[in-house]
């Protein structure tokens, strides 16, 4: 849940204090790389062994966002992992995909999770009052900035960039994710598409009035968000036809059983 983006997940103001007090999952092993802090400017920490690789210390808000998102996902799935932190979140996302009878069920569940992260009145007011401004550009720029500020705990390093809009103009309403942690950790095209890309696109368009096209790259794990751009129809979206990743656990099992693993069974 690139998509679950979930998300593109919290109210537009990030300067106020936390609204929820949730248990922290602090006993997990340190991840293979650290995410950006959402609560402070980016401050790179250089390894002693190299000056080319940068890491970022997670902040208090990162833990808050992770715990909040995981809590809402657990409520939807009805199950929680024994694993702490991000590893546990990925296991819950896997359970969401496995328990759903169809891809549509997975997508609808992910949309419900995203909606539960916002006060309903906030979504309604944003769609009515902000989305129409300047042909939708104001709303698109705003959600792009909030996504980049609040979702690096989920996706990894990202930055706002300019994208081409359908009217022929360009706008700083894009978010480029350098290497999506959610995709890298899940190792699954189906989880990316059905718990992140498709539900996040639907959520922003249907509940915030902001069209969104997400373009994950399954070769380098980058992802381009294009707020203000409508996605193609499912039958015309080449991303939905992507094969399983070589490292996908489900694809590996299918190969071992001599089952066709060219297309992800959940994509």
TrEMBL record:
A Pfam match: D27-like_C
GO molecular function terms noted in the UniProt entry: iron ion binding; isomerase activity
InterPro entries: D27-like, D27-like_C
Keyword ATP-binding: no
UniProt KW Isomerase keyword: yes
Keywords of this entry: Isomerase
Domain Beta-carotene isomerase D27-like C-terminal: 153-234
Name by which UniProt lists this protein: Beta-carotene isomerase D27-like
Organism: Trema orientale
Gene that specifies this protein: TorD27L2
């Amino acid at each position: 849940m690139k998509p679950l983006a979930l998300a593109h997940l919290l109210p537009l103001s990030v300067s106020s204090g936390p609204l929820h007090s949730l248990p922290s999952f602090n006993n997990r092993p340190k991840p293979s790389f650290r995410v950006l802090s959402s609560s402070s400017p980016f401050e790179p920490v250089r390894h002693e062994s190299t000056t080319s690789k940068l890491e970022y210390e997670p902040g208090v808000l990162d833990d808050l966002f992770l715990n909040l998102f995981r809590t809402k996902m657990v409520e939807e799935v009805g199950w929680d992992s024994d694993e702490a932190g991000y590893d546990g979140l990925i296991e819950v996302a896997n359970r969401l995909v496995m328990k759903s009878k169809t891809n549509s069920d997975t997508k609808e569940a992910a949309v419900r999770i995203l909606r539960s992260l916002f006060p309903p009145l906030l979504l309604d007011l944003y769609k009515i009052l902000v989305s129409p401004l300047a042909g939708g550009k104001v709303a698109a720029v705003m959600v792009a900035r909030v996504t980049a500020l609040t979702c690096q705990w989920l996706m990894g390093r990202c930055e706002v960039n300019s994208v081409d809009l359908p009217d022929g103009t360009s706008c700083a309403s894009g978010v480029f994710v350098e290497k999506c942690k959610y995709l890298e950790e899940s190792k699954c095209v189906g989880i990316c598409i059905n718990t992140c890309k498709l539900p996040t696109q639907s959520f922003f368009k249907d509940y915030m009035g902001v069209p969104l096209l997400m373009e994950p790259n399954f070769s380098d794990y980058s992802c381009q968000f294009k707020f203000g751009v409508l996605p193609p129809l499912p039958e015309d979206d080449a991303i939905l036809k992507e094969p399983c990743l070589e490292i996908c656990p489900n694809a590996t099992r299918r190969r071992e059983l001599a089952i066709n693993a060219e297309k992800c069974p959940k994509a």
